[in-house]
Every structure is written in C-alpha cells, then in structure tokens.
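Minutes, project check-in
Item: structure for the 196-residue chain
Input as provided by the requester:
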Amino acid sequence: MKTVRLVAWAAIMLLLAWGGMRFFSQSENQVSGPGGPFTLTAHTGEKVSDSDFRGKYMLIYFGYSYCPDVCRIELHKLTVALELLEGEGYDTSLIQPLFITIDPERDTAAELADYVPDFHASLIGLTGSLADIADIAAKYKVYYRKRVQEGIDGYLMDHQSYVFVMNPDGSYNRLFTARDTPQDIADTFKPVLTKK
C-alpha cells in the first residue's frame, strides 16, 4: 500500500514538472501583443511592407472609406494630434500614420487616393486582396464583418476602432481608443520627438 502511494506521488510530481516545462516553453514562443509582417498596396499604387517603416512609430488604424462616422472621427483625431505637435515645433517624421482598409472590395488604391487627402499629409492608405486583409487583421487581432442594413445602399462594415501604436522595431507598444483625445496622443509622443 505504501509503495502504491509513493508511485502515485512520483507520477503526479513528474506530470506537474512536465506541465510546467510545457507552459514555460509555450510562453517563450508566444508573440507579445498584436502585429506582424505585411505587404499591401498603398493609395499611390506602390507595394508597401511593414519593414519600410522601421525606425518610425506606426500608428495603424483599421477602417474603411465608406464608413459613415467613426473612421473619419479617428483619422481626424490623428491629424489634429500631429498638427498639435507640429504647431509646437516637434518633428513628426518619426511617426507614420497608416489607414488599412477592412473593405478591400470597395477600397481600391484609387478609392483610397481620393480619401486620404482629407487627413494629415503623411497618412498612407493601404489595401490588398481579401486574403491579404484577412491575414493582417488576424495578426493584429482585429474584428470586422460585412453587414447589410435596410435603408443603406450597399453594406456597412462592423469593426473595432483602435489605433495600434507600433514601436520603431515593429513590436507592439500600445492602443489608443475612442477615449484618447488628440492632446493625449500628442502628449504620448513628446518624450520621443525632437523639436526642429
């Protein structure tokens, strides 16, 4: 009886040790935060990759040009934040705002070329195939879905509304949400920017 208990305890200890090693090996391999490589088409028609922006903070917003409200509000907020910084003499060339469509069926490069000039001059609109957009949305853990609604010509896109801040090395830094004001965004970047 005593031997059976010893064997059972030894088996439990081995199982716990194996589970612990497995947990730590998985933790080391997990990516911390959203993000990942991408290659998409800019509103200028050029192919653009995330690696093109190394050395800059990417401010990435996922939305669509036919969005009736929230996308324009958030992109305007980014525009105002950058203008506040520039108005105080900061060099904002270290910040790259990107608008990635979640509606590539309508948001062609030509469509985005008409849309992005409404915002900050440095904004780049990005599109791609349905598969390209699904891939980057999965990497950034972005939810979106097509929705047909009565009284609306065409369709709407349900989606999250966050600005992803990516570090100059491409790693995840933080999110800006609807609660963040242009001044909050500007204040976040002042410590890493220099004045002209």
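Outcome recorded: The radius of gyration is 22 Å.
No further action items on this chain.
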